[in-house]
Amino acid sequence: MTAAAIAIGLLQVLALVAIAPVVTGVMRTTRARLEGRFGPSPLQPWRDLRKLLRKERLITEQTSWIFGVAPLLLVASTLVVVAVIPSVATTTLLVDSVDLIGVIYLLLLGTVVLALAAIDTGTAFGGMGSSRGMTIAALAEPAALLAIFAVSLRAGSSSLSTIVEGALADPAGLASPETLLAFGAVAVVTLAEAGRLPVDNPSTHLELTMIHEAMVLEYAGPDLALVEFASSLRLTLFFGLIGTLFLPWGIATTDNIAAMAVGVVAWLVKVLALAVGVAAVEVGLAKLRLFRVPELLAAAFILSFLAVIVSFFLR
Amino acid sequence: MKAIALSIPFLPAVAGVIALSRWRRIASWTGVTAPALVLVGGAVLGLFVAKGEVVEVFDGLVRVDALSAWMILLIGIVALIATTYGVGYMAAEVAQGHTNAKGARIYYALVQGFVAAMLVAVSTDNLGVMWVAVEATTIATAFLVGHRHTRASVEASWKYVVIASVGVTVAFLGTVLVYFASRHGSGATMRWSELVSAAGQLDPGVMRTAVGLLVVGYGTKAGLAPLHTWLPDAHSQAPAPVSALMSGVLVSVAVYAILRVKVISDLTLGPDHLRVLLLIAGVASVLLAGALLLAQTDYKRLLAYSSIEHVGLMAIGAAIGSRLAVAGLLLHMLGHGIAKAVGFCASGDILLASGSTRIADTTALLSRRPATGGAFGLALLALLGFPPFSLFASELAILRAGFAADMGWAASLTAAGLLVVFGAVLVYGQRMLLGRPVTETSWGSDSRATMVVPLAGGLILVAAIGVWMGPLQPLMEAAASVISS
Amino acid sequence: MTDGALFRFLDFAVGLSLVCGYVALWRRGLVAIVKALAVQGASVAVVAMLMGIYEGHVQAVVAAGLVLVVKAIVIPRVLVGVIHRTLEYREVEPLVNIPTSLLAGALTTVIAFIAGRHLVALDASPATRGVPVGLAVMLLGFLLLVFRRKAVTQVVGFLMLENGVALVAFLTTAGLPLIVELGGALDLLMAVLVLQVLARRIVRQFGATDLNQLVNLRD
Prior knowledge:
The complex is a heterotrimer of chains A (315), B (485) and C (219).
Chain A: H1 3-34, H2 44-53, H3 65-84, H4 100-120, H5 124-155, H6 160-169, H7 177-193, H8 212-215, H9 221-246, H10 257-284, H11 293-313
Chain B: H1 2-21, H2 24-49, E1 55-57, E2 62-64, H3 66-96, H4 101-122, H5 127-145, H6 151-183, H7 192-197, H8 204-222, H9 230-237, H10 240-269, H11 271-293, H12 299-320, H13 323-354, H14 365-368, H15 370-384, H16 390-404, H17 408-433, H18 449-467, H19 472-484
Antiparallel strand pairs in B: 1-2
Helix pairs in contact in B: 1-2, 1-4, 2-3, 2-4, 3-4, 3-10, 3-13, 3-18, 3-19, 4-5, 4-10, 5-6, 5-10, 6-8, 6-9, 8-10, 8-11, 9-10, 9-12, 10-11, 10-12, 10-13, 11-12, 11-17, 12-13, 12-16, 12-17, 13-15, 13-16, 13-18, 13-19, 15-17, 15-18, 16-17, 16-18
Chain C: H1 3-26, H2 30-55, H3 58-86, H4 98-115, H5 117-122, H6 131-147, H7 151-173, H8 178-206
Helix pairs in contact in C: 1-2, 1-6, 2-3, 2-7, 3-7, 3-8, 4-6, 6-7, 7-8
């Protein structure tokens, strides 16, 4: 890889890492303002992370090595995905080593590792959170994979750069039925995997209603900082993935500085717009009762299934 | 001639409108005049078309050939019996408090509408209009089945409307596909006569699907197994004259629709295609009806299952397809229609007298009410195929045709089923009819003349046809040649 | 409009009717199910209109207007009236749970596409490409009819069956002769009115429209 390519790749990684907690902060602020409160500043999550990193590392004696390793694995797998997805430009550090299916499974790896760590603690809430989390992950997987299959069928390959270049070359195809259906499916999967309403309430304090939060109840200090950082990074990644697959305008395809600047601005606009939009919609939603979450995920599966059917039969 | 053909469906329609607005007595007797005029018109048309002519009006919207004329005659006779009986039946129902004058007026209007829809279905060349008319019969009979507003009748009418409408919708898809096939054949047409002459140019793949859908759809309306589940409920909950019309004629109209489809299918796909389907459905209906008749506790449901068995027999006749089988099938439609009408009307009498439809509650019918019991018993004998009633000849004809056409196994199975039905109906029949009355409760005096005369007339007609067909013979042969040419 | 744009709209309308079928299988609220039916009726009307424009048949455009009024406005209004009259607003415990019925719907859609192949083969135009979708909508309506308990849902299932057949009719033949369309629309309206009255009677007799209670008549 050329030096320019490495520089662009590093730029994308740094941009994502820097912006991720801000995305979470923006969502909290939007929600607060819409609810009539003043709310914290969007930079508050960075301050929280700084506070947590300075604390002492506390781990219970009842856990095995998995509990300590899990936050590191989580952040590592998420960072690999960060290095793969084209967000600002189509050339990234690892762009053709991992295709779209691999991206989904890397994200799933993070979920599995966290669930294992939660069971490792042996507490009731940890077990409950991980069983709920794995159920949702298991039901969301087929929907996500079929949606990716539909998108890849359209582009002819599951390699991310090919998909983005194909989408840029044929913008009218983004309004085709199969893309709209796949978008719907990926949107629902995003809400499920990232733990947002209506699947999971990230700001709840009642343990029996928690899914993701229940899995991280036992973490404290630097470990908690890593886990929180990884979860905002995942959320930003999902938004970025939606932007890359379904709204690819502005991505830099060439090496020059102007294109890069446009790319950065476009990506920021897309991710922040999605964040504000999702937060605004969340204000009006109530959390679904747990037995109705499979209904939602089955509907997402049907959307992606229809996307595949449409792309096969209505060509 | 054209005027007669045009006016035939309108007569009951006009009678229905009169029934809605007029005083009950006038309504009921107009209701009898209309079928009588239809019968006369049908007879005139029958004489005309038996020579092979066809009456066409409005570019095929109304088209009466020999088969249509046969059906018009059937509808006319059965409607005459049912409406004449219905006058007395409705009067008794109002007197006993089961319904009021407004309910009676609605009843008369709906019955006339029902008859009008059936007449439209059999006298049109346009497959689409035939479909519309068959669906209209479901709508007209929906409230008739639920006439008494009881729990059981509401349940029966809901099941009936949903299942029959779903079936007819499936038939609609078949009709659409036939139109589609014709578009790529010799030109888009809905007219049966044009489809028959252009049958060679219709795409076999599409037609296979279309014909299957049409048979399943209209078969639901006819009560062929396994789509028969609505029939016992609907025919047993409806008032007796309505059951007579539904069991006697409506199922035959549905079989008529299947026959029209069969003619096209035989020309496009060869006679073997529908043969298997109809044979399986027919034999299954006969065997199923026989099995379920063994454990009946309700005499109206008994008659309804007997209808399923006879429709199965008609389907077998259609499946065999030879001249003898088709002639037997047509004769069977006529004989079964009249005999079933008499049977249901007599059962209405029993219900009015005893207040219950259970077989166990009905004993010593012949000694308590000779006229009713006699009519019911003779109707049962006719339905079992005893000579001299015409069903003997028609059943024998179909079975003989089955053996002659190398379908001996099907004919044997059918004969076995008929034997089971024979035994079951005889057992229940003699339980109901014979013996001395055990309890002293009186069932009132015997039925009025207006209620007995149509039953007696029907029985005499069925017996007469069984012996000598007379002027009906050339019409039947012309109708048979429409189907099996 | 150009042929290409017309076929894009056609594909969109056809796809929308299929999605509406799935929405009806997915939702529990009876009013939402009726709204899905209304949108499906409107998309069928759009298909009819577009096919009429494409083939130049005036009767298809007239039929489109008829379909729009009857299937998208009048009938849903009648059904919502039934819902308010019987005071039953949701399908609390369907016979088959919702994820399973959605999966069954997916299976029947595959079957519909396989079965519709040789229909498309007869006349492979961009319009008849959508015929399997019509069959799929029919099967979805049938599933709705069978898998649910409430009377209104059964009626919606039956109407969806009709919508599927209408879709196939408009896509293959740009509409049937007008007299058949008129008769069919009238029949449909009458059937729904009949079912409305029967639903009222069911409530009066049984207290609720749980169709699983209608099991008194049997052998």
